[in-house]
Amino acid sequence: MKLRLGFVAVSALLAVTGAAQAQIKVGVTVSATGPAATLGIPEKNAVSLMPKTIGGKSVDYIILDDASDPTTARRNAERFVGEDKVDLIIGSSTSPASLAMIEVVGRGKTPAISLGAARSIIHPMDDNRKWVFKTPYNDATVAGATVKHMKETGIKTVGIIAFNDAYGEGWVAEFTPIAKEAGINIVAVEKFARNDTSVTAQALKVLTAKPDAVVIIASGTPGVLPQSTLVERGYKGKFYQTTGIVNNDFLRVGAKAVEGTLVAGAPLVVADELPPGHPARDAAIAFKKAYEGSFGAGSVSAFGGYAWDAALIAQFALGEAAKKAQPGTEQFRAAVRDAIEAAKGVSTTAGPVTMSASDHNGYSADAPVIITVREGAWKLQKP
User: Which of 314, 335, 346, 376 has its CA 20 to 30 A from that of 157?
Assistant: First the structure.
């Protein structure tokens, strides 16, 4: 009888151990509070829609808030790698926070999918960045699409007002040579901080330069401040913003001051206007329906889409890795990384993703669409 009980106990222990091994852990760090909360909240919301089972294994999502702070984002990554032993990290919301996580991710050999836009998150490729991927279009891709539209519409001179951080600096660095090659002259470059309450001095310098268009490089509602300041002072040229402001809070805070804003960005917020056959249409419409079904009509934003696209890529990669190794092991994490890098034509809300050893973003140069603000809503800009 004792032998029988012992056998049962050991069998139960093995069953528990097997179940633990079968569970996939995904660490998610987003900026749910702080200046970038308008990015992080929809990203956090999207996590609730992510699959709970992949490859026959349950998935545990461990969600942390980095409060829009790079130091906290790094600390969250250290917890994911050192304590939680996650198989994959998603996050963070901003470029500075994502850049702060790279060394931790690389040292821990844990694959990560960033929700930040800066190309510097994945370039130049090195031993740490080989573990990092990202879902928003690279700033270089968006800058190229922006310059293309400027050239087509006769813009000759441009002023810039940008965040004085990694996002702003990276965008300016990518935009400048592309604009120069297109024959567009940058007549002013001004910087401001995410938490600034006034940019009057910067706006006046840009106004003095009399550019045909102004590019504002910011994310979240802080992107409204330079534009509203310029409008108040009578600027009549075109405004271009970056993908970092594409949500309803930007429209709400900016009101009439942001009418006519142009953005080369992801097609999710104009999913219903995409023509049949557009490569992002089906995935974008499906996610929009699911997200708004849970969080209300009109609630979908590009940022929720970035998190969801990370989930779509993760679902593919985790499923592939589950065929080769057990979750919770170094072999599994390596298999996840390899599967992401080998992804070919994975459908996302921003278009098909094809990764490679030299490209950890995977979108084509023509993936962005030009969207605009018309009558207080995001609309597809017609040619």
Answer: 376
